[in-house]
């Protein structure tokens, strides 16, 4: 039983309990405090109450009890309302941000397939040539690209919000935000058309275009590699397979890149680059779907291994921890057996 709020340790329980005044409290309130102890305000107030007649004392105590009880119930109601409404709102926005990832993939996929012009070949020309200086499709691509940038940044923030305490997934969210933020720089780094590059008309914007493309690809690889550690075996294998495909077709694209600057035929470079983009867009959709389903980090195979290890250590602990562990009910044993040992420090042999 605790003491009254604000009272010293030598004070007993409150004066009103179960409809009766505590005789022990009355005796201590009327008694002089220990030597060297100076009464504080609450002690003096209790001492004054102790001088009241018994019926009047009960009345004051009952009123005070009701007031404190009402304040306590109001506090519980406020906390319950906040906790019931807060998570629902946060969950709604988290899912909305994750849906932005799916929308971004669908938008960019439509852009690389549908946007074109007379004389443009989607098989032998890269998507970057649609944004080249002087290209008739540059304006449309820039407008849709701005929407894609916003959607990707929102998706990265949604991944961050879904990470909880998982460091790997927070890194993935940050990398996706950085990847999307590069879209803010693309309008300032357009490439020239093939004919201009072959005639030596390349400028600093062409160099910046190559640098941004390299940074974009690097962020894609790192994000996929880090995310492979955040989930179970199937997603890990899927991410690894996606990275392998990106590397294979990326090498083919890089091998033919000088031919673009020389305005030489590039029969398959457009197809190879579109395959690479599609692989990454599909990976984004899968990642968003996994997070929308609620398969958060902590449900992967590593945690299951930790749980198995915890159950083993728990069973061993039952034989070495003395009577404390033996007194546990069977249901409690089964519950604790599912938790890693770090959740049960009192069963840890080194815990004191």
Question: In a nutshell, what does this entry contain?
Answer:
This protein is mainly alpha-helical and 352 residues long. 66% of the residues lie in helices and 1% in strands.
Tell me what you see in this structure.
- The chain is an all-alpha fold and 352 residues long.
- The protein has three domains: 16-78, no CATH class; 91-293, no CATH class; 301-347, no CATH class.
- Helix content is 66%, strand content 1%.
- The chain contains twelve helices and two strands, in the order ββαααααααααααα.
- The protein has a two-stranded antiparallel sheet.
- A hairpin with a 2-residue loop joins β1 (16-17) and β2.
- It is rod-shaped, with a radius of gyration of 34 Å.
- The model is unreliable at 1-13 and 295-352 (pLDDT under 50).
Number of strands: 2
The percentage of residues in β strands lies in under 5%
C-alpha-based Rg, rounded: 34 Å
Which shape, going by the Cα principal axes?
Answer: rod-shaped
How many angstroms separate the termini?
25 Å
The tally of domains stands at 3
Give me the strand/helix succession: EEHHHHHHHHHHHH
What is the residue-averaged pLDDT? 78
By DSSP (H or I, 4+ residues per run), the number of helices equals 12
Q: Roughly what percent helix?
A: 55-70%
Task: Give the uncertain stretches in residue-range form.
Answer: 1-13, 295-352
Spatial order of strands in the largest sheet: 1-2
Spell out the blueprint of helices and strands.
Blueprint lengths: L15 E2 L2 E2 L1 H8 L10 H10 L3 H61 L23 H26 L3 H15 L12 H5 L5 H24 L5 H29 L7 H25 L7 H18 L4 H4 L3 H8 L15
Antiparallel strand pairs: 1-2
Helix pairs in contact: 1-2, 3-4, 3-9, 4-5, 5-7, 7-8, 8-9
